[in-house]
């Protein structure tokens, strides 16, 4: 993570963040959880995983807090088995110690290609299915870990997340990034998100903000 400038919503990361694979190294970039604080995690599950943390005090209404956002490298190399990413996800959860998790719910739906589209449709669908299978596997590991460790977690549908972030349930990635910049004071470049992955960070920030809001309003 990189130093952030203060904003109305809290201190937030600015610019491109380097990816880290080892969960223990990533956790060292986070502040130590100081009692009686509890850690809320917004998680955008993917090979380039968006993760945003916020520590809050139970029993208090949160009006302003610090968000610590970034990307975590959850990819595997050609020499690794695919199950290694699931092992690393469990380790990530153990070392970051979240007490509440909000994550993006991803559903794969096949759509018919427009007439005349000159693409290898079968290859595109196969690639999308593989990606969906990876995310579904990560979701299964996440929810199982939460059950085993008595950590509440909630899946947020994509449309709900987009509406929370931008006011529009059909917002695109650039809309979400620009809204993140406006709301949280980040300066992410919307046009280059495919290379930087800042769309994952933006999603995780909104997920974490939703978690903080629901947690605060539910116990205050």
Structure description:
The protein has one domain: Nucleotidyltransferase, domain 5, CATH 3.30.420.10. It has seven helices and five strands, in the order αβββαβαβαααα. It has a five-stranded mixed beta sheet. The protein is an alpha/beta fold. Helix 2 (83-96) runs parallel beside helix 3 (121-148), helix 4 (158-166) packs across helix 7 and helix 5 (173-184) packs across helix 7.
Structural class: alpha/beta
What is the class in the CATH system?
Alpha Beta
**Number of strand elements:** 5
Proportion of residues in helical segments? 40-55%
Q: Give the low-confidence spans.
A: 1-17
The CATH topology: Nucleotidyltransferase, domain 5
Order of secondary-structure elements = HEEEHEHEHHHH
Largest sheet: 5 strands, mixed
- Count structural domains: 1
End-to-end Cα distance: 31 Å
Question: Could you say which overall geometry the principal axes of the C-alpha atoms support?
Answer: globular
Average residue-wise pLDDT: 83
CATH architecture name: 2-Layer Sandwich
Calculate Rg over CA atoms: 17 Å
């Amino acid at each position: 993570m990189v130093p952030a400038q203060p904003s109305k919503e809290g201190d937030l990361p600015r610019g491109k963040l380097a990816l880290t694979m080892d969960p223990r190294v990533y956790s060292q970039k986070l502040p130590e959880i100081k009692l009686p604080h509890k850690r809320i995690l917004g998680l955008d599950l993917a090979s380039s995983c968006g993760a945003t943390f916020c520590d809050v005090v139970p029993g208090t209404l949160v009006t302003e807090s610090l968000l610590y956002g970034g990307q975590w490298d959850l990819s595997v190399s050609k020499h690794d088995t695919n199950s290694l990413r699931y092992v690393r996800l469990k380790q990530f959860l153990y070392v970051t110690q979240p007490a509440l998790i909000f994550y993006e719910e991803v559903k794969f739906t096949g759509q018919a290609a427009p007439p005349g589209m000159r693409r290898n449709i079968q290859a595109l669908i196969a690639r999308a299915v593989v990606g969906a299978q990876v995310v579904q596997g990560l979701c299964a590991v996440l929810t199982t870990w939460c059950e085993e460790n008595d950590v509440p977690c909630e899946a947020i549908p994509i449309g709900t997340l987009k509406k929370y972030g931008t006011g529009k349930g059909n917002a695109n990635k650039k809309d979400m990034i620009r809204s993140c910049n406006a709301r949280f004071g980040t300066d992410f470049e919307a046009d280059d998100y495919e290379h930087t992955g800042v769309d994952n960070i933006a999603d995780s920030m909104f997920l974490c903000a939703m978690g903080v809001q629901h947690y605060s309003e539910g116990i205050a």
